[in-house]
């Protein structure tokens, strides 16, 4: 096994940001997909937008490749959509996005110098029309979050919640709205389309998101007996 090649999870439940997974040796494939009773990928996510067999990474003649497995919501490599079932060569620092940013991870070659890694990693996620300024900045279409000019990588549910609140910024959002938009996979038959999610789970998600936003966590305010609001 090549111990210098890794995948680093930046966002994607249930993994913590920064989790590392080594690339498998030649002849084997590192699989990514949605966890289910009938399928278990090497790296399994819980988002319903991730396909059961979404993408694979493998070595061919010692070179790393990625291949989208005809996923429903697609795979992006450095913001470029991958053609299904067509392998693409990977380079250290490449950013891979599943289902339009529901899952985000980075391919790393730790034999590369730190300076090279930093340059390659920051280049794809910087936007030419985004100025480096103080404050909390969100680009919902890209699921991109910057704090004081630096990118912030969150897990899928944290990103879902922050983007949803941002789209309704300065408006109170009810707990039922949050349930529907953040946990659509938990909608049960005969439940009036309200997912089976308790308020304690919502409160815990908001609490963790505030912690991750640091000084800007107070931007998420509680609306008593109703829900939450992103105040900008």
UniProtKB/TrEMBL annotation:
Residues 128-232 form the OmpR/PhoB-type domain. Residues 30-82 form the FHA domain. InterPro entries: Cell_Proc_Reg/RNA_Proc, FHA_dom, OmpR/PhoB-type_DNA-bd, Sig_transdc_resp-reg_C-effctor, SMAD_FHA_dom_sf, WH-like_DNA-bd_sf. The keyword Transcription applies. Keywords: DNA-binding, Transcription, Transcription regulation. The keyword Transcription applies. Residues 128-232 bind DNA. This is PSer/pThr/pTyr-binding forkhead associated (FHA) protein.
């Amino acid at each position: 096994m090549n111990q210098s090649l890794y995948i680093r999870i930046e966002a994607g439940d249930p993994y913590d940001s920064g989790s590392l997974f080594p690339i498998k040796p030649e002849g084997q494939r590192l699989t990514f997909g949605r966890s289910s009773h009938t399928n278990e990928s090497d790296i399994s996510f819980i988002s319903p937008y991730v396909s059961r067999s979404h993408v694979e990474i493998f070595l061919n003649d010692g070179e790393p490749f990625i291949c989208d497995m005809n996923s429903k919501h697609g795979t992006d490599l450095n913001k470029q959509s991958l053609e299904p079932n067509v392998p693409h060569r990977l380079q250290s620092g490449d950013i891979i996005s599943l289902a339009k940013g529901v899952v985000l991870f980075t391919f790393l070659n730790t034999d590369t110098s730190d300076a090279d890694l930093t340059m390659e990693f920051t280049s794809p996620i910087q936007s030419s029309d985004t100025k480096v300024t103080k404050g909390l900045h969100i680009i919902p279409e890209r699921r991109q979050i910057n704090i004081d000019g630096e990118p912030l990588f969150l897990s899928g549910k944290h990103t879902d919640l922050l983007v949803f609140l941002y789209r309704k910024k300065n408006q109170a959002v009810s707990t039922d709205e949050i349930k529907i938009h953040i946990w659509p996979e938990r909608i049960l038959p005969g439940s009036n389309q309200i997912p089976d999610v308790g308020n304690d789970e919502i409160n815990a998600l908001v609490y963790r998101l505030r912690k991750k936003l640091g000084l800007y966590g107070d931007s998420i305010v509680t609306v008593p007996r109703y829900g939450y609001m992103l105040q900008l």
